[in-house]
Amino acid sequence: MEIARNISEKIFYKEFKKQLPSENELIDQYHVSRNTIRNAISILANHGIIKRVQGSGYFINQQLINNDELMLMASKDGIHPTRPQSYEDKCTILKKLKTKILSFKLLQANKQNAETLGCELGADIYYIERLRYFNNELFCLEKTYYLKKLVPYLDEKICQGSIFEFIQKQYKIEVNDADEFIKMSYTNETDSKKLSIPVNTPNVQITEINYLRNNVAFNYSIINYFTSDISFYNHVTCL
């Protein structure tokens, strides 16, 4: 995974402009086995970042990397996910990104929570509801659940920033795969009041369930996007 991330950074920062180096060149550059390089290439291809041309190698998906308004569905980097974030990038984004916590609670899992997370009824879960603003405009409403036995500690201060970044560093949690369900949605009276917008305001709703390597769910979120300056990208490979 680390090799794939590093190659991805080189792609998005234009060190690799049109085509990846050959397998042998990547092996020499990273000092790893051929299988490791092939696994990294497979991850990038599955995300749609590169495309294989038979007999010619792997070419970079220019439509993806040159579009700043795209959210790469396979990514977990949040607001500006088609580009890996350097320290300078993160500082710039954080200045533009504001978070308002609407609710932070430790709950006991109800039937829906238990079925979604595959946990027992009554298991401790964190519930976070927050508004995200980008450039002072409403970006999204997030309703997020974390299984406490896998994410032992969260607080409101942590939830002001990137929760995923915190749990990756603190608990070494990495998302192995995810289920994502996308639909058009319309705000109900309760959410409209929170957002100070009309009832039935259209938005894009994504329900996402994130899994560890052992296929155990540790988190699920319901996110409603209200900005018009965004597109979603998902790469599909036919069987």
Description:
This protein has 239 residues and is α+β, with helices and mostly antiparallel strands. The protein contains nine helices and ten strands. The strands form three sheets. The chain has a six-stranded antiparallel sheet. Strands 1-2 form a two-stranded antiparallel ribbon. The chain folds into two domains: 2-65, Orthogonal Bundle (Arc Repressor Mutant, subunit A), CATH 1.10.10.10; 70-233, Chorismate lyase (3-Layer(aba) Sandwich). The model is unreliable at 78-82 and 84-88 (pLDDT under 50).
Into how many domains do the coordinates divide? 2
Mind telling me the CATH superfamily name of the largest domain? Chorismate lyase-like
Number of strands: 10
- Oligomeric form: single chain
Gross morphology is globular
Give the name of the CATH architecture of the largest domain. Answer: 3-Layer(aba) Sandwich
Topology as a string of helices (H) and strands (E): HHHEEHEHEHEEHHEHEEE
Structural class determined from secondary elements: alpha+beta
Can you identify the CATH class of the largest domain?
Answer: Alpha Beta
**Largest sheet features:** 6 strands, antiparallel
Distance between the termini: 24 Å
Helicity range of the residues?
25-40%
CATH fold category name of the largest domain: Chorismate lyase
Protein name: GntR family transcriptional regulator
Keywords: DNA-binding, Transcription, Transcription regulation
GO molecular function: DNA binding; DNA-binding transcription factor activity
